[in-house]
């Protein structure tokens, strides 16, 4: 039975082959369309700021391009790429924290989506359009604890692939599943706290 | 009885609603063009870094060679000085031995003592002179230091 790691390693055999042949430029050209979107999504999920995510995704790709000839094949290529991206994101978060002078992170207070629905959470949640319902749901997701939020967001960004999320965040698939379960439970609880008569009907409402 | 199916239905509805709300962001327009520019800049920086590294290595190598040459020259000079001093001492001794009978005739029995005193004075003068004029210490600097101490 194949694990997520071996599947990822198999997927990138062509890139690794080019690297072993000493053609890092061609290897990079091959991996770029495969990973740039995922790197950007990972940055969006970790940073909660799309403009900063774009900068950090670009920085990460330049770093990958520079370091590609040093890739030694000990870990799967995707693991190596995501580790570089996560490190750049952590550096950017630290930079942001310093720039904010240790003030509570603006993103942690609600994230990039929360502002658009500020004030709506307290009003009658019933009778919202599907768009408003999505926005309110996103604001609830943004209010989740960080470790649960990033797993949940990446899970839906990556079309419900637990293995991919585990690889992106560098944690076991079991941890991802646990966090997903807790995140959904927390969301269901918060939906209940909104005072909805029928949360299920509200969620399924397509108006 | 109906609790579990209701929870499962809510979970399904939540899953569908989240999938609808959390749409994966697309790469911003122009991302690839900006990335290509950043890669070109990075490549140019890398060439600059390599050139600087090579230049630094070359300068360090040249400096090392120059230092080695200076050290070899200094050792050669020290050996030559020592050889000159030893040869001079032997030559002076030989000259004194040859000239001693004639000097004793001219000056008297105190000639050996006088010659030894003159030899010692010349030796001390040479030693003092070489100590003062050692590399990096000029006579003026020595005089200035003395004046400062006085």
Summarize the SSE layout with pairings.
The complex is a heterodimer of chains A (207) and B (150).
Chain A: H1 4-11, H2 13-20, H3 24-47, H4 50-67, H5 77-99, H6 111-114, H7 130-142, H8 146-157, H9 162-169, H10 173-193, H11 199-204
Chain B: H1 3-21, H2 31-107, H3 111-132, H4 139-149
Helix pairs in contact in B: 2-3
Secondary-structure-based class of chain B equals mainly alpha
The 3D shape of chain A can be described as elongated
End-to-end distance of chain B, in Å? 110 Å
Query: Largest chain interface and its two residue counts?
Result: A-B, 36 and 28 residues
Structural class call of chain A reads mainly alpha
User: What's the overall average pLDDT of chain A, rounded?
Assistant: 82
Sketch the topology of chain A as an H/E string, one letter per element: HHHHHHHHHHH
Total strands of chain B: the figure is: 0
- The average pLDDT score of chain B comes to 85
What does the model show?
The complex is a heterodimer of chains A (207) and B (150). With 207 residues, chain A is mainly alpha-helical. Chain A is built from eleven helices and no strands. In chain A, helix 3 packs across helix 5. With 150 residues, chain B is mainly alpha-helical. Chain B has two domains: 73 residues; 42 residues. Chain B is rod-shaped. The model of chain B has no long low-confidence stretch (mean pLDDT 85). Chains A and B meet through helix 3, helix 4, helix 7, helix 8 and helix 10 of A and helix 1 and helix 2 of B.
In short:
The complex is a heterodimer of chains A (207) and B (150). Chain A has 11 helices and no strands.
Tags for this entry?
heterodimer; A: 207 residues; mainly alpha; 11 helices; B: 150 residues; 86% helix; 0% strand
């Amino acid at each position: 039975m194949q694990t997520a790691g071996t599947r990822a390693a198999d997927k990138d055999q062509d890139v690794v082959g080019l690297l072993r042949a000493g053609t890092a430029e061609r290897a990079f050209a091959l991996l770029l369309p495969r990973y740039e979107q995922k790197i950007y999504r990972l940055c969006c999920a970790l940073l909660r700021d799309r403009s900063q995510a774009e900068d950090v995704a670009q920085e990460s790709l330049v770093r990958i391009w520079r370091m590609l000839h040093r890739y030694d094949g000990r870990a799967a290529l995707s693991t190596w790429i995501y580790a570089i991206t996560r490190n750049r994101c952590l550096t950017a978060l630290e930079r942001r924290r310093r720039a904010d002078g240790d003030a509570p992170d603006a993103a942690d207070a609600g994230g990039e989506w929360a502002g658009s629905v500020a004030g709506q959470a307290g009003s009658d949640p019933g009778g919202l359009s599907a768009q408003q319902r999505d926005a309110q749901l996103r604001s609830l997701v943004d209010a989740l604890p960080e470790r649960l939020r990033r797993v949940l967001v990446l899970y839906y960004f990556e079309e419900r692939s637990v293995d991919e999320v585990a690889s992106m965040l560098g944690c076991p698939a079991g941890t991802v599943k646990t966090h997903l379960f807790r995140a959904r439970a927390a969301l269901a609880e918060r939906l209940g706290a909104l005072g909805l008569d029928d949360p299920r009907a509200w969620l399924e409402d397509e108006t | 009885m109906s609790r579990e199916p209701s929870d499962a239905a809510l979970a399904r509805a939540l899953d569908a609603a989240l999938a609808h709300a959390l749409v994966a962001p697309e790469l911003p327009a122009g991302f690839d063009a900006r990335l290509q520019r950043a890669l070109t800049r990075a490549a140019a920086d890398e060439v600059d870094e390599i050139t600087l590294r090579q230049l630094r290595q070359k300068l360090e190598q040249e400096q090392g060679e120059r230092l080695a040459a200076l050290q070899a020259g200094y050792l050669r000079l020290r050996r030559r000085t020592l050889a000159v001093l030893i040869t001079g001492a032997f030559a002076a001794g030989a000259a004194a031995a040859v000239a001693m009978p004639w000097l004793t005739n001219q000056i008297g029995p105190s000639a050996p003592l006088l010659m030894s005193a003159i030899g010692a004075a010349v030796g001390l003068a040479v030693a003092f002179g070489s100590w003062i004029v050692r590399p990096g210490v000029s006579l003026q600097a020595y005089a200035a230091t003395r004046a400062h101490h006085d």
